[in-house]
Write a structure and sequence with these properties.
Elements (H helix, E strand, L loop, with lengths): L1 H19 L17 E11 L2 E5 L20 H5 L5 E8 L4 E11 L1 H12 L3 E6 L2 E2 L1 E7 L5 E7 L1 E2 L1 E3 L7 E3 L2 E11 L13 E12 L12 H5 L7 E2 L3 E2 L14 E13 L9 H4 L5 H39 L5 H10 L16 H26 L10 H12 L1 H14 L7 H29 L8 H28 L25 H8 L1 H19 L7 H28 L6 H9 L1 H15 L7 H39 L6
Helix pairs in contact: 6-14, 6-15, 8-9, 8-10, 8-11, 8-15, 8-18, 9-12, 10-11, 10-12, 11-12, 11-18, 13-16, 14-15, 14-17, 15-16, 15-18, 16-18, 17-18
Length: 661
């Protein structure tokens, strides 16, 4: 019978696996193109690894499409990420290859040339999209052993540095677009009579060149639309001439620039479902480093687990056994009581802390952030937040945060009710739970948005999007927090295992390393050590425009982080109680929460070593540290809650195991 149940379970698992591999996520289903069909090449933002700011593609006077450029619709996640998608002057038709097609001819003033030079000096790259695929440049890198390997970089460079003078730039005005496709054949299938054959786009590659185009006579702008422009430096059959001179950016002079492009169609055996693999494998060494991170985190976890096991199994178990023996004489029992300090503070250990209402608020916010993180990463692991579904990650985070408002309000209310008589107020507690964490985040975000708007970068969020965020906050999150708080205040208050004395016990003088500041700083090191390797990849995806896709690693690291925070908080709390210091409430929160301080310091180190800001220094620096403050603040609330709730359960367990007259 057990074998039959096991066989049924295996069949169910196989069935679910087959189901999950047989459907496409909304918005990322394949799109078939028939021969000669016109495609829309979209232009995105200008980005650089040297600055967190993004700029609109048409901040530079590139060629506009006929009728002028216009913005395309974007979802909430794309807008918050600073994405701006617009139409372009590049025309492509399915399976139609053409060379040296003229996009336009532009006359740039010295001001435009100087602005372009600034962007080129900051290593900005222009980003494009086709069929939801980002354009990428095929480049060669060398690893630490000197071996060359091929990878991709998103977008194409605006200019190349002169090999003779690093202060001179060659303007990239010729773009080679390579579109890789996979055939869709309907012959011999049931779709033969209703659908014609087509192709699926599985690759979108860009390669930029600098060409000082030469032509004879006067220029006619209409030749670009008719495709009749004749250039000496570009052959319509073979492409740009190998001997064509490069176009040097001039100083303080007008420039006349002819923009051209090639469109090349190449057949590929890559399946549509695998077309994102080249983007996700842009960092070839990621897997090895991620596994190193997991091993490193596991060693820390095993070390802490051993310490907790030693405390629980050897020290506490022995203490509790000796303490609770009724057969001992009264003198022996008193001696056992005096032997270990944590038992001496049983009458004060559950005394409500200062600012108890604020602690209850942060506990509720911790539930909200932890739930948001766990559910968002879980959805990402199951493939619902694929990089091809642009903006989905931010949307999922917002929705999960809103939905976790009810548990946050409930937990905050439960602890607020437990702290009865400690200056807590129900309505005040509920409002603070709903507003303190999101209010701080929104205030920082709003100030940063004003700075970005003043710098004319694309990361500035429109007023309508700010209104939408406020509607999410006050229209959904706030009512859910009130609902959860109503449920929490309806339940009976948590009863402590021991009674609290009327007169507080005096806390003896503590050694320096057991005082509040040193102990919480020591406690935050290990949780940060668990995540710092993974943090590098997360920061790279945010600030260096890379795709983060190893959510399975992130989920495993999050689990190790939660366990580590719980264990280090328990260890430090036990040492504190053994020192007869019963003010453990806030310190339990800060012990693991202090890891957010190390995260912020590491972000500053990352800025100095990896992101060398060269453009708009003040705004870029404010943007970087502003968003890293938001990330560190959320990390503090998450880890602090985990550490606190672990200590709360630990203290209730050990004091519930002793017998007090």
């Amino acid at each position: 019978m057990s074998k039959l149940r096991s066989l049924k379970g295996i069949c169910v698992v196989i069935f679910l696996v087959n189901i999950t591999s047989a459907f496409y996520l909304p918005g990322v289903a394949p799109r078939k193109y028939v021969h000669g069909e016109q495609l829309m090449v979209k232009v995105n933002t200008l980005t650089s690894d040297l600055t967190p700011l993004q700029f609109d593609y048409y901040n530079i006077p590139f060629c506009e499409p006929k009728g002028g450029e216009h913005a395309l619709s974007e979802n909430l996640g794309e807008v918050l990420a600073g994405e701006r998608t617009e139409t372009s002057a590049y025309q492509c038709h399915t399976n139609v290859t053409h060379m040296c097609k003229v996009a336009c001819r532009k006359k740039w003033s010295p001001e435009y040339v100087a602005e372009y030079r600034d962007f080129a000096g900051a290593h900005f790259r222009a980003n494009m999209r086709l069929d939801n695929l980002p354009g990428a440049e095929l480049v060669a890198f060398r690893d630490q052993d000197g071996q060359e390997f091929i990878s991709y970089r998103l977008g194409y460079p605006l200019a190349e540095v002169s090999e003779y003078n690093a202060s001179n730039f060659y303007l990239n005005n010729h773009l080679r677009i390579t579109i890789r496709y996979h055939d869709v054949q309907t012959a011999g299938t049931r779709l033969e009579k209703i659908e014609e054959p087509g192709v699926l786009i599985v690759g979108f590659e860009l390669k930029a060149f600098s060409v000082d185009h030469q032509f004879e006579g006067d220029w006619d702008d209409s030749c670009a639309e008719k495709n009749t422009c004749e250039l000496f430096t570009c052959d319509p059959t073979s492409g740009i001439e190998p001997s064509a001179p490069k176009l040097l950016l001039k100083n303080h002079e007008d420039m006349e620039i002819v923009f051209t492009y090639d469109v090349i169609w190449v057949h590929s055996d890559v399946k549509w479902a695998s077309r994102w693999d080249v983007y996700l494998q842009m960092q070839w060494q990621d897997d090895e480093i991620h596994w190193f991170s997991i091993v490193n985190s596991s060693v820390i976890l095993l070390f802490l687990s051993g310490m907790v096991a030693m405390i629980m199994l050897r020290i506490l178990r022995k203490d509790l056994y000796r303490y609770n023996q009724l057969e001992q004489s009264e003198e022996a029992r008193e001696e056992a009581r005096e032997e270990t300090g944590w038992k001496l503070v049983f009458g004060d250990v559950f005394r409500p802390p200062k600012h108890a209402s604020l602690l209850a608020v942060f506990i509720g916010s911790g539930v909200q952030v932890l739930g948001m993180s766990c559910f968002t990463i879980a959805f990402a692991v199951f493939g619902f937040l694929s990089p091809s579904n642009r903006g989905s990650l931010l949307i999922a985070m917002i929705l999960m945060f809103v939905c976790m408002g009810a548990p946050a309000g409930y937990v905050s209310a439960v602890f607020c009710k437990m702290f009865k008589g400690a200056g807590t107020d129900r309505l005040k507690n509920t409002i603070m739970t709903a507003t303190i964490f999101p209010g701080v985040v929104f205030a920082v975000f709003f100030i940063l948005n004003l700075l970005i708007w003043g710098d004319k970068a694309t990361g500035a969020v429109p007023f309508s999007t700010l209104v939408a965020l406020l509607l999410f906050w006050f229209g959904l999150s706030l009512p859910l927090v009130f609902f959860g708080s109503w449920l929490g205040f309806r339940r009976s208050a948590i009863e402590h295992p021991v009674r609290t004395n009327a007169i507080p016990r005096q806390v003896p003088e503590q050694v320096w390393y057991m005082k509040a500041a040193p102990s919480v700083l020591m406690g935050g090191v290990l949780p940060f050590g668990v995540v710092f390797v993974e943090l590098f990849f997360i920061l790279s995806s945010i600030w260096q425009h890379r795709f983060y896709y190893l959510f399975g690693f992130m989920l495993l690291v999050l689990f190790i982080l939660i366990v580590t925070c719980a264990e280090i908080a328990i260890v430090m709390c036990y040492f504190q109680l053994c020192s007869e210091d019963y003010h453990w409430w806030w310190r339990a929160y800060f012990t693991s929460g202090t890891s957010a301080l190390y995260l912020f310091v590491y972000a500053a180190y990352y800025l100095l070593t990896r992101v060398h800001i060269v453009k708009a220094t003040i705004v870029s620096g404010a943007l970087f540290f502003g968003y890293m403050f938001i990330l560190s603040y959320a990390f503090f609330v998450l880890t602090g809650f985990v550490g606190f709730i672990a200590c709360f359960c630990f203290v209730r367990t050990i004091y519930g195991s002793i017998k007090v007259d």
